[in-house]
Design a protein that fits this description.
Largest sheet: 8 strands, mixed
Helix content: 25-40%
Shape: globular
Number of helices: 15
Number of strands: 15
Order of helices and strands: HHHEEEHHEHEHEEHEHEEHEHHHEHEEEH
Radius of gyration: 23 Å
């Protein structure tokens, strides 16, 4: 634990509040180890049970995680806003940032022309009674989903993919329920599951998606929901294959106690076909975001699903935020309808494909195993994440440690290819080879 911060309190509530204050101020940054229960109890002159209750509350709220012999640590992204001074600094000058996992800003369609056109035709201001899913937006969304084999008779709109997934989980589950999640999987989802007080069950992932055996095991352990990334899985690049989808559909058929959520965050950027699970169970939802193809600032996702599930999400939205801005819906509809934007998105997807495939080939030439069937990320298994991350940073490359994305999966690092140019691939592969196997030959390129 940070030496300059002392946890205080005589009750479990006061102790948990003290820890939260340390997280909020930055005195207890992500990954900080908290004292053992008995040690802290002795320091505070309270019973071990009091400290244990405080730690339990912090775990239920998603602020800390307990990892066996590694003790209790602050989660990588705890659900509490910290002071601006506590935010992680950007990589040092001269270090390329391959850790963010964002699309290439150079390939995103410009919004200015469509915003200008929208300003000229938006019409009179919309009142509270006008907030809804626009009919034209819904019709186009249904057509786009139907083209990929997703039934969309019932749909609604949420403020992005994670907002949609959160509303879906909250509509069906209660704190303590088990959720089957990909392992390794999307770090934000793992943090969300913790913040909701749900219990994650890791499902192994290979290049074809969640394994059949892993899903079966999660069902045996009582999973109430299963979250699957359709393609461009973060962080491994997995994409659900036709064979795997067929086997999973057979396994899930008729499971009335299970909510299946599919996350198609890559959407139009994906260069592999969609193999949906939609409708395999009575309760299901398919979430498609617009952020990756059109820009992260467009906080909008379409949620299709069975009638009851969509009604729950739409109803909860109505009594809370109300609706997703109709101005934003009009903007996305304009982007969907512009052939020039569609062509730009296609070119972006092809560019990511070349960069990812190129990096995988360079790594293979150097004898470095890596995964990345689709999307913008490459997953490199390693023996020790800390040493590899440090070595790559010293070589001028900032990468993400795999610990952010895994529950029981082996150590690895994630490299995002979206900002790489072709000339970067060989030098990066050289640096990875040296970091993974210190003393390896510097380059195999000709």
């Amino acid at each position: 634990m940070a030496a300059h911060y002392q946890i205080a309190g005589a009750t479990s509530a006061a102790i948990s509040a003290s820890v939260e204050s340390g997280v909020r101020s930055g005195a207890l940054p992500a990954g900080t180890a908290l004292p053992a229960v008995r040690a802290l109890a002795a320091d505070l002159a309270v019973s071990p049970a009091t400290v244990a209750r405080a730690y339990q509350e912090l775990r239920q709220r998603g602020l800390v995680v307990t990892a066996g012999r590694h003790g209790t640590r602050v989660r990588p992204r705890p659900p509490v806003a910290g002071r601006r001074s506590a935010l992680l600094p950007p990589p040092p000058p001269g270090v390329r940032d391959l850790a963010l996992g964002q699309p290439d800003p150079r390939l995103l369609p410009p919004l200015g022309p469509h915003l200008a056109a929208l300003a000229a035709q938006v019409g009179p201001p919309t009142g509270y009674e006008g907030g809804t899913v626009l009919p034209a937006f819904a019709e186009t969304a249904r057509e786009r989903l139907a083209a990929d084999g997703v039934p969309a008779d019932d749909l609604t709109v949420t403020g992005g993919a994670l907002d949609g997934i959160e509303r879906l989980l909250a509509a069906h589950l209660r704190p303590g329920d088990a959720v089957a999640v990909e392992d390794p999987g999307w770090a934000n989802l793992l943090d969300l599951v913790a913040a909701l007080g749900l219990r994650p069950i890791g499902v192994p992932v290979d290049d074809d998606g969640p394994t059949e055996a892993g899903v079966a095991a999660a069902l045996t352990l009582g999973a109430r929901a299963l979250v699957v990334t359709s393609r461009a899985q973060n962080p491994t690049g997995a994409a659900l294959s036709a064979e795997r989808a067929g086997r999973l559909r057979a396994l899930l058929a008729g499971r009335e106690d299970l909510l299946v959520i599919e996350d198609d965050h890559a959407a139009e950027l994906a260069r592999v076909p969609l193999r949906p699970l939609a409708g395999a169970t009575p309760a299901w939802a398919f979430v498609r975001s617009v952020s990756k193809p059109f820009g992260p600032d467009l906080r909008l996702a379409v949620v299709a699903g069975d009638e009851a599930t969509v009604a729950r999400v739409a109803g909860r939205l109505r009594v809370g935020a109300g609706w997703v801005s109709t101005v934003l819906q009009r903007l996305v509809l304009a982007l969907w309808s512009d052939p020039a934007v569609a062509e730009r998105v296609t070119r972006a997807g092809e560019s990511y494909e070349r960069r990812r495939a190129g990096l995988l080939a360079e790594l293979a030439d150097r004898g470095v195993p890596a995964r990345g069937r689709s999307g913008i990320n490459v997953w490199v298994p390693v023996l020790d994440e800390t040493s590899v991350v440090t070595a790559l940073r010293d070589a001028g490359w900032a990468v993400a440690p795999g610990g952010l994305y895994r529950i029981g999966a082996g150590p690895a690092v994630r490299l995002t290819v979206s900002t790489l140019d072709e000339a970067d691939l060989a030098p990066l592969a050289d640096a990875v080879a040296r970091a993974v196997r210190p003393g390896a030959a510097a380059s195999f390129s000709t």
